[in-house]
Every structure is written in C-alpha cells, then in structure tokens.
C-alpha cells in the first residue's frame, strides 16, 4: 500500500460539513486540509452507480487538476426497506432548482418508508468510501459503515445532510443531536478513516 507523506492534504469535496469532519479526523496526525471547493476547482459530475466509482471520479479529477495527491469521500444512506435507496443517490434526493434542501430530502425519505409501510425499526446504514489518489493514477480505497435506523421527526441541528433522521445503533441520539467529536468517534466516515490512517498515514 502506498504511503502519504506530507502535512497538507487536498480533499476533493465541495461539502463543508464533510470537510469539517475530515479536518478534525486528520488533525491528530498533524495533517492540515485544503478543499477542492476552497481552491475553486470545478465539481466533476458523479456519473457512476457505485460509491467507489464516484469517489474515484472526484479524487482523480482533483489530482489531475492540481498535480497533488487528493482524497475524495463518497457517501450516503442505504435504507433496507427501500432496497438500499437512496444510496449513491443520497445527494440527488436533496436537489432542487435553487440548491440542496435536506429538510425536503428527509421528508421524502420518511414518505417513501410510509408508502411501503416499512416495519420498525426502519433499518439503514450510512456508508463512506474514501479514495486517495496520486497524480500518476495510483489510488487506494477504504470503506466504512455505521448501522442504525431512520427515525421521525427530525432531531438535532448539528452535523449536516441527513443527520437529524439517523440514529446510530447503540445510541439514543441522532447524528444531528451529537456534537462533532462524538459523531467522529463512531460514524461511517470515522470507520473509513481508521482504515485510511492505518494504511497510508502510518
Ligand atoms: O455523515 C453524514 N451525515 C449526513 N448526511 C451525510 C453524511 N455523509 C453523507 N451524507 C449525505 C449528504 C449528501 O447528500 C450525500 C453524499 O453525497 P456525496 O456526493 O458523497 O457528497 P456531496 O455531493 O455532498 O459532496 P462532494 O461530492 O463534493 O464530496 O450523503
Ligand atoms: Mg457529490
């Protein structure tokens, strides 16, 4: 496995919520982050039907644009009673003509569960795939998961995306009710980062 050496890493994301979590996850290793969003890089279109496919698109796009190694995160929530939806299309469910609306996306998620009369608890997993890519085309892939259930109504105003309707197993709080420190101990993203750190940073 190829090691990353450096104290600054380009993160190929335009999502500020993700970026804040990633910055905190890398802080203990003495690595600062810069994001594709902050660098003004374009957002490539995520045309693949898998998390790894889309993470590869984002990581390789950023590394080719800059000549620097780049880390991408592709993530989403897969709901058992919806045959794994929204999954890779989690962000798409929030799209509106004027930008993303996660309140709408969470309401849509619950409506779909009601429409199929899904049994309780409404099982789901958050998934995160990380791809660390180098300018010569090499990459390394790491996957993380956090099982739990979809709950309603929304609870909590911390975090981002679908956090207010996801209650991870073993906790009474939703991700939206956890502070970033607590979420970063247990999340799908933390799980993937543990593997990334073990493989590429040590
Ligand atoms: O911890 C999370 N807590 C709540 N929601 C989350 C989380 N992790 C991913 N999500 C949701 C947000 C987004 O709607 C989708 C990921 O889509 P995804 O394409 O990977 O990210 P994105 O478009 O927001 O940013 P970017 O592609 O620039 O990294 O899943
Ligand atoms: Mg995206």
TrEMBL record:
Enzyme Commission no: 3.6.1.66
Gene3D superfamilies in the cross-refs: 3.90.950.10
CC cofactor note: Binds 1 Mg(2+) ion per subunit.
Key words, A-Z: Hydrolase, Magnesium, Metal-binding, Nucleotide metabolism, Nucleotide-binding
Binding annotation for Mg(2+): 74
Active site: 74 (proton acceptor)
Protein name: dITP/XTP pyrophosphatase
Origin organism lineage: Bacteria, Pseudomonadati, Pseudomonadota, Alphaproteobacteria, Rhodobacterales
Cofactor: Mg(2+)
Residues noted as binding substrate in the record, renumbered to the chain: 13-18, 75, 160-163, 183, 188-189
